[in-house]
Amino acid sequence: MNLSLRRSGGSSRRRALASVLVFGSASGVAFSFSPSASHAPRPFAALSTRLPSAAAAGAASKHRCDASKLSAGGGDDEFFGSECILTPEGFGFASSGARVLESAGRGNGYHRAKGSDTILDVMEGISGGSADAALVFDDDTDDLIGLFTETDYIRFSSERAAASSEEDAASFIVSPVSSFVTPTADLVSIATMDTANKALAAMQKDSVRHLVLANKISTQNRLLPDSKVEGLINMQDIMAVVQKDERLSLESLAQKYPGITDPVQQMKEQLKSDANALARDPETVKRDVISAGTALISVTSIGLFLSQSAWLHEHADLGMIAIFVLGYIGIIFEEVFEFNKAAIAMLMNTGMWIVYADYFNSAEGVASESVLEQLKEQLSEVSDICFFLLAASTIVEVVDAHQGFKVVTSLITTKSKKTLFWVIGFLTFFLSAILNNLTVTIVMVSLLRKLVPNEDDRRLFGAMVVVAANAGGVWTPIGDVTTTMLWINNNLSTVPTVTELFLPSVVCLVGSLAFLVNQVEEDGSLEESTLPEPSELAPRGQLVFWAGIAALLAVPVFSELTGLPPYIAMLTGLGAMWTLTDIIHMGDEEGELKVPAALSKLDTSGILFFLGILMSIGVLDKSGLLKQLAVFLNENLPSQDIIATVIGIASALIDNVPLVAATMGMYDLNEFGTDDKLWQLIALCAGTGGSILIIGSASGVALMGLEKVDFLWYAKKVSIGAAVGYFAGIATYLLQDAVLHGGLLTSAVPPALAAADVMGSVAGVM
User: In 3-state terms, what secondary structure has residue 147?
Assistant: First the structure.
């Protein structure tokens, strides 16, 4: 790299020189200066080849540059003359291997030994001299046999210590050193004119501390049959030369150019200037505004809490709502604020419980016994869901680690894009019925990268996976997390959920896929897919796969038979899988396939997010605010069917977990019993409504990260199709409910008309 210094004033020239001296050698790049075509650039490495034996004396004889001529604007020829060098002695990382050896002051740098010498003799020779290693030569031919270093001595000592008898151990003492050397063919070498930079690169590549210096070497940094060994250098020798040269460079520069009294200080000033320029960047301004706003809100909130404000006592309900709204905004715009939503949820939870415990109604600044009991009760309910998710996610992770899903994916062989579209859709639909939606999305998108080479096609296929995963998770208690929440809270039971939500979920899937498949074009690109030929899964993988599926499917059966909460059943399944994998991998040193490794890969922040959200919703429930919201909705919306439909549409913008948690607190289970139409419709709407926008579900957010799908592309290509399936599923459920429970015309027509009105409003907005 060449830097041209023009006659534009001494200050710019001095800044360039400081930059070169401070950073040039440290980066390992040799710089030369070429102000005009008449002065060709000459790298420092080329200069180093002309160093005489006495480097210091040679440097002292060089012609020194006159800084006064440079400052007058007429010193280019003086500065760039053939005899001018900036640093009197060395060239840092551009120093030659010969100079490194000479500067070390240890002669040739090695102890010379014969192949017949004992190891004790060689070690005595090394310790008695200035070298830290020995080159071993053949007794007869004087050819180099190899290198003996401390590493070889450690190997010798280890073998001696492992000897089976004292006689064998004694024989090691008289062993020839040739038996324990690093052979010549394995020695890493550099030529005498190679730079220190190249020497360090060779050391790093081959993980060695010593380099043989020779007159010529191969391109692989190995000795040739006719190479002549010049010496041996180590890492310490190289760094000593580099550090000496860099220090000398700074001192010399300060002496030659008085205007540059401290190059390092000038670079610090430059860094300050760069930081100031960065602060004017729009992204930096945005971050500063967010930081300032966050700090202001935090300080204000803490001040209100500590001051025992009378206003907060009188308006505690508004305080809780304000904290919830602010926290929710932070969660929705997580990518904008760059705050992790789990952290926001935890802080929101803490703030709301403090307001409720210390300020709500007749609270006197300290949590009462009744509030503490409510807190324990809420934590108990939330813990059920968190432990359930923890156990289920771990089981799926263990199955995936054993490549268990290959049982399913190996069945895909079609080369038709439209056929593949439907196959992947239904495969995702049924997988998400028994597995976590997020996990299924990740697995299927990873598979699509092998099946669908075209990036645009893969985005559409990925969007279809999101729609299918959300629809498939609705109709089983262990599919979508919202259905799981309702099931664990006893709002839903297993058999009615499966039988009454399966058909609407299928219609939702088919409606969306039938709309989206029209965007798929057959072009033969699937012939380029990189999916390997189907192969048989190892017996261990098959065993773990089927055991994992059995553990997941047994959860509702276990709960029905024992009456125990579902999380106990899921933890029992995890315990069984843990024991199974420990037995399978008994004696294995590596633990990547065991449960502890799977636990380390879990999205713990996601579980903490659920904890914070559900605990926050619990405060609103305990305070009665959700009841007030339920009364408002009942008074202003014509039916619970419309309420559920609106909740589903809202889940396209807002995370469905807190939405469902809120509705669970809004409506009393005594009034709307287990498997009531309201709960089933909420499960259907909240699960499938999240597909309308990409930010409406965890699966959609995962797709954004995996395939870089943006919000507007999804809204343009997929949202209408997802909405078609959403309303088709609702209509199917209402029709099915009317048929199963009688009163087809009186029960189905009014809700259907209301749903049509809502659909028309949503379509107008979109």
Answer: strand
* Residue 222: Cβ within 10 Å count: 16
pLDDT at 639: 80
Closest of 82, 84, 147 to residue 113, by C-alpha:
147
33: enclosing H helix or E strand: strand 32-33
The model carries a pTM of 0.50
- What sign does the CA torsion over 710, 712, 713, 715 have? positive
Give all domains of the chain, ordered by start, each with its CATH number.
Answer: 2-92+245-275 (no CATH), 98-234 (3.10.580.10), 294-367 (no CATH), 379-765 (no CATH)
Q: Which two tokens stand for residue 531?
A: 């999916």
Distance CA 349, CA 344 (A): 8
Q: Give the H/E segment covering residue 214.
A: strand 210-214
Q: In terms of DSSP bridges, do strands 182-183 and 144-148 run parallel, antiparallel, or are they unpaired? A: antiparallel
**On the CB side of 742, how many CA atoms lie within 13 Å of its CA?**
0
Cα 4 versus chain centre, distance: 42
User: Residue 460 has what pLDDT?
Assistant: 92
DSSP symbol at 2 = E
The angle subtended at Cα 175 by Cα 170 and Cα 177, nearest 5°, is: 145
Closest CA to 483 of 469, 495, 497, 496: 497
Please provide the size of the chain in residues: 766
Extract the tokens encoding 536: 């048989």
For residues 638 and 750, give the distance between their C-alpha atoms in angstroms, rounded to a whole number. 10
Residue type, 98: A
Residue located via tokens 């990260």: 705
For 43, the token pair is 């790298």
Report the C-alpha gap between 532 and 201 in whole angstroms: 38
What pLDDT digit, counting tens, does each position of 671-680 carry?
Answer: 888 888 889 9
Contacts (Cβ under 8 Å, ≥6 apart) of 340: 334, 605
What is the DSSP annotation of 94-109?
G-BHHHHHHHHTSTTS
For the stretch 553-593, pLDDT in tens is 788 788 778 888 888 988 999 999 999 988 888 877 667 78
* pLDDT per position as a tens digit, 132-155: 899 999 988 888 999 998 888 888
Bridge partners (DSSP) listed for residue 114: 137
Task: Return the residue matching tokens 């692989």.
Answer: 220
Pair 489, 664: CB distance under 8 Å: yes
Share of the chain above pLDDT 70, in %: 72
Chain Cα centroid distance, residue 78:
54
The backbone region for 105, taken as left when phi is positive above 0, alpha when psi lies in -120 to 50, beta otherwise, is: left
The string of DSSP codes covering 34-73 is -SSTTS----HHHHHTT--SSHHHHHHTSPPP-HHHHHTT
Q: Say if residues 32 and 82 touch (Cβ distance below 8 Å).
A: no
As a whole number of Å, the end-to-end CA separation of the chain is 55
Looking up tokens 């300060």 gives 254
What is the number of alpha carbons within 13 Å of residue 181 lying toward its C-beta?
A: 29
State how far the alpha carbon of 64 is from the alpha carbons of 47, 88, 95, in Å: 16, 9, 20
Give the burial string for 646-668 (b: 16+ CB within 10 Å, else e): bbbbbbbebbbbbbbbbbbbbbe
Q: How far is CA 164 from CA 159, 170, 176, in A?
A: 10, 11, 20
Other CB atoms within a 10 A radius of the CB of residue 183 amount to 12
Asked if residue 317 lies in contact with residue 623, where contact means CB atoms within 8 angstroms, the answer is yes
In this prediction, residue 298 has a pLDDT band, given cuts at 50, 70 and 90, of low
What DSSP assignment string belongs to 386-397? HHHHHHHHHHHH
User: Which residue, chain included where needed, has tokens 């409510």?
Assistant: 374
Q: What residue has token string 């003086």?
A: 78
